[in-house]
Amino acid sequence: MPFLSRDWRSPGDQWVRTSEGWERLKLWRIKIFERMNENILARLLRLAVSEYDDTWHKHQPHIHYIKGISKERKVMTSLSEAFVHLDMTGAVRDIRRFNYVKKLMFLLLTRNFRYLSGTSQKNIINILEEMTNQVLKTDTNVPAMKALLNCAVNTLTDGQYSHIGSECLWNKHRATVSKTVAKLEKYQLKQRHCDGKPTLDDLPEDCLRCIFRKLSNHSDIIHTGQTNQTNHTVSSHMLLWKQLCFFHFTDQQLLVFLPQELEINEDRVNWRYIYRRCYKRFGMKDIFADHLAICCHCDTLFWQSIGHPCFSDSELKSRPLSPEAFLDLFVL
């Protein structure tokens, strides 16, 4: 016959059974709240604030970068924390920050995606999904997004037997990327309806020339010049290619291919040929409308166009971070 009496472990307390055994209910609740780390709290806060657009625009995504472990703090700033606090998923909705995030995702996929933590991998896959949704919504950057998803497919295929983490999580990544690729393949370019408003063909050559000067990618200029004779004439102007040469390359790089008799026959220089040779030798400079930066006073990572709350009263000084420099902070 069983002996019935008060709980010998702690009279009057409530106990709960967990995977690790029996635990006191009060202590179990405390552990649950402790496991709700800064990432989860930041995600809940972002979901709550996203319902109010006016308040969301005033939010300044930022994170304090901790360089190393000290006696006061035993935890370094992780890549997954930076993704959440810097709102990388929401950054792709801004056309100014889309190219920066795209370059960042490309570097992560080609470098060591298979060796990242499971949380970082899930964040990257979620960002790719949001980027695809934004591309389909705005009808922009479709070829670049296809190339990025193809890179993700190749990375997941190559790392199938050499990745860190569970096989179930890796297969889930592959399934998610496959669905995203299939969604993007169904995209069809929408033709503009005749609404009576002016189009690019209606603009004079001077306006077209000003628009072409704002394009930093030579492929956009070449493809636009293939549409009609007027655009071809504007895109073939040597002054346009001369400006592209001085914008993307330094003087030392240009001197490698410039003729020695430049001062005598400057008008006869084929700047389009010079640009093509420099592009094959040195590559093209990455251009971002907005980028990440690190504050020189408080070591805070933030978006340059949004800013961050800094404790310093002096003039804010920050150092811009390229996507490569940002990843180097986390020793990837």
From TrEMBL:
Q: Name one GO biological process term.
A: protein ubiquitination
Tell me a GO cellular component: SCF ubiquitin ligase complex
Which pathway does this polypeptide act in?
A: Protein modification; protein ubiquitination
SUPFAM superfamilies for this protein = F-box domain
Keywords, ordered alphabetically: Nucleus, Ubl conjugation pathway
List where in the cell it is found.
Answer: Nucleus
Q: Which residues span the membrane?
A: none
What is the protein's major site of localization? Answer: nucleus
This protein's name: F-box only protein 25
**What organism does the UniProt record list as the source?**
Magallana gigas
